[in-house]
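> example.struct
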């Protein structure tokens, strides 16, 4: 993220450094007192999570840091989410169904959570099946929910193999033609998309929403 002001830089730094008390106090002030755009605050959280993920992959952070980061982000999300909803009008017809989950071997959920509620407030019916989701669970949930789009989330590089394996399983189950597959996460690009066999990748939640809208309009 470019164009950051000092306060935004400070929030990213405190979150990435596991400075829980200061980070939560600043996030709450930005959301509740300063009236900052809650989606912007969540994007700052995602930028901090990118740093945490890199430190984890480089062996500087371990599982306890990932868990703490997730807890901090859950708390900020709990404050931000109702503020996003407040800006929306009444219930409207749902545009389509999206099933989303973080692939097996990966415990990151902040990016997935942002995508889930951005889809929700844009009129999609979303089913979020959580983190570290086994291939069989994806297949069972697809049969039950009948989504138009399946979103596979993963932050760590090991998630790329899990994504590929999951999409291959959709092929083998004979269901791949029934929905579009989008992938997202910290380090995903066109090379990773081609490797996994997904239809598209989104670099952020807004792109994910646009992908779903474009696919369903085309359908």
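> example.seq
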């Amino acid at each position: 993220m470019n164009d950051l002001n000092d306060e935004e830089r400070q929030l990213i730094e405190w979150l990435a450094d596991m400075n829980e008390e200061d980070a939560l106090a600043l996030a709450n002030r930005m959301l509740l007192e300063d009236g900052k755009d809650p989606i912007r605050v969540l994007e700052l959280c995602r930028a901090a999570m990118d740093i945490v993920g890199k430190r984890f992959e480089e062996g500087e952070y371990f599982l306890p840091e990932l868990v703490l980061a997730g807890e901090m982000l859950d708390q900020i999300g709990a404050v931000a989410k109702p503020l996003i909803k407040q800006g929306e009008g009444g219930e409207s017809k749902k545009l389509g169904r999206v099933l989303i989950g973080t692939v097996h071997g990966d415990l990151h959920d902040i990016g997935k959570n942002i995508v889930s509620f951005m889809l929700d407030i844009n009129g999609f019916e979303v089913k979020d099946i959580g983190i570290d989701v086994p291939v069989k669970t994806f297949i069972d949930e697809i049969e039950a929910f009948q989504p138009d789009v399946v979103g596979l989330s993963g932050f760590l590089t090991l998630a790329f193999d899990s994504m590929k394996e999951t999409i291959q399983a959709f092929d083998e189950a004979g269901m791949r033609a029934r929905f579009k597959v989008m992938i997202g996460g910290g380090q995903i690009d066109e090379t990773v998309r081609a490797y996994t066999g997904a239809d598209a990748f989104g670099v952020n939640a807004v792109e994910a929403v646009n992908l779903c809208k474009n696919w369903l309009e085309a359908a």
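> remarks
The longest strand covers residues 97-102.
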